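Worked example 2:
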Amino acid sequence: MTGQRYLHFTVFISGMTTLAIELSASRLLGYVFGTSNLVWASIIGLMLVYLTLGYSLGGRLADRHPEEAVFYRLLAWGALTSGVVPFLARPVLRAAADAFDQLAIGVLAGSFTAVLVLFIVPVTLLGMISPFAIRLALSETDQAGRVAGRIYAISTLGSFFGTFLPVLLLIPLVGVTFTFLIFGGFLNLVALLGLWRRVGRAAALKRLWMPALLGGLALLWGQGNLKNTPGQVYETESAYNYLQVLEVGEFRYLRLNEGQGIHSIYHPEQLIYNGPWMQVLAAPFFNPAPYTPEHVESLAIVGLAAGTTARQATAAFGPLPIDGFEIDPAIIRVGETYFGMDLPNLNPIAQDGRWGLAHSPRRYSIISVDAYRPPYIPWHLTTREFFQIVYDHLTPDGVLVINVGRAPGDRRLIEGLAATIGTVFPSLYVMDVPDTFNSILYATRQPTRVEDFYANYQALQMQAEASPLLVSAVTRAIANLHPDPCAGAEPAAGCQVFTDDRAPIEWITNNMVLNYILGGGVEELQ
C-alpha cells in the first residue's frame, strides 16, 4: 500500500472511530441519564464543539509541522484517549447512578458534565486528523479543492460505517466498554503501523505501551459491572437498552437505562402489585352492561417488557391470545429467563409497537400502550395518527388503555393525550394510580357511559368465580376516576392535539420535571 493510499485508509478509520465514539457515548451515558432528546442534544452539540476545536488546531499544527511523524503520533494519542474514556468515566457514572437512585440532582448534573468533558481530548484530537491529512496529501495548490474533497469524502464514508457498527454489532455483542476499546485499539494500531512505515521502526516501538495499556485495561477491568445496585442479579446491554434485574426478597424488578422506572415485576406466588400494569384489566368493563370477563377475546400489549401485564391478564381472563410488542429482543429473553414469561398464550413480537400493530392482521378486545422510557413516552405513540391505528385494530367493543406520567398539580400530558385520543374515540376516562406519578387513560371504541362501569363492577362483585385480581383492578379504577379533562364546555388549557407533524412530548415532560424539581418536589420524596 502506497503512502497516499495508507493515508486515505487512516482517514477512513479515523472517521469511523469518531462517529463510533459519539454513538457509544450515548450508550455510556444512557444507562444513567437516559436517551432523551436532551441527552442526545448535549452529546451531539458538545461533540461538534470539540470537532470544531480540532479542525482549527489541526489546520494550524499541519501548517507549522507538515510531517507524517507528527500526524501519526497525534492519531496514536487520539486513539489511546478514546479507548480509556469508559474506564475514566466508570467511577463518575457509578456515583451518578447512586445519585439518581437517591435523586441527588446536584451530583447528577455534575457527573453528567464531567463525563461529557472526558470526551474533549479524544474527539478534539480526532478532529485534527482530516485537516492535517489534507495538508500532507496536498502537493500542488491548484489541487487543493480536489484533495480536500477526497479527504472529507473518505472520512465521511468511514463515519457511515462508524454509525452502524457499534449500535448493530459491537455493543450488543461485547458491550460499551469493549466497543470503545476495539475502536480505540484498532485506530492505535493503524497509527503505529503508519509510524513504522513512514517514520521508522523505532518510532513505532516506542509507543507499543499504548496498545499494551488498552489490552491490560480490557483484561483487568473490561468485564466489571456497570452498576453495583443492591440486589442486582443480572445486567446486560442490548442494541436498545441497558437492562438490569434486581431481586428484593422474593420480588424481581426489571429496570432499564437510568433505572428510574420499574418496567416489570415478578413474584412466583403473587400477582397483585398495586402498580399500573394491573389497571389494564379494568378496561373492558367500561363497555355497556352487562359485560363479563368471557367477552374479552384477545389482548395486544405495546411495550410488553418482561410480561407483567400478560401474566395478570391470563390469570384474570384465562388463556386468551396475547400479542406482546417489544422492540428490544433482549428484554424478551430476560422476561423468559427471570420473570416467568413462558405463557403458551403469549406471542412476544420483537418489533416497534406502532409498526407491529399497524401491520397486525388481528383485532383485539384490549390494546394496552405502556412503552415508557422514563420519564418519556415515545412521541410516535401519542399522536392522532397512532390512535387511529389503535382504533382500527380494536373489536367493536374494544378498549384502548394507555399509561401516562404526570407531576403533582401538572396534568398537561394527560390533557394533551385526552384531547388527541378524543379526536378518534367517542368516550374517554381517566384514573390516577395511587401512590405513583402514573395515570391511566381508557378510551372505548363505542360510545359508553361511566354508569356502565359502575354496573359492571357491581355484577363482578357478585360473581363468586371472579378473579380477585380483576375485582381489585376495577375497584381501584372506580376509587380514583377523574372526568375527561377535555370534555364539556370548558376544556382544560393543556388540551392540544398531538399529530405526527407536531407532538412536543419531550418539551412538555422536561418542563413538568423541571417545575417539579424547582418546586421542591425532590426533597419531598427523600
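The chain has a mean pLDDT of 86. The longest helix spans residues 144-198.
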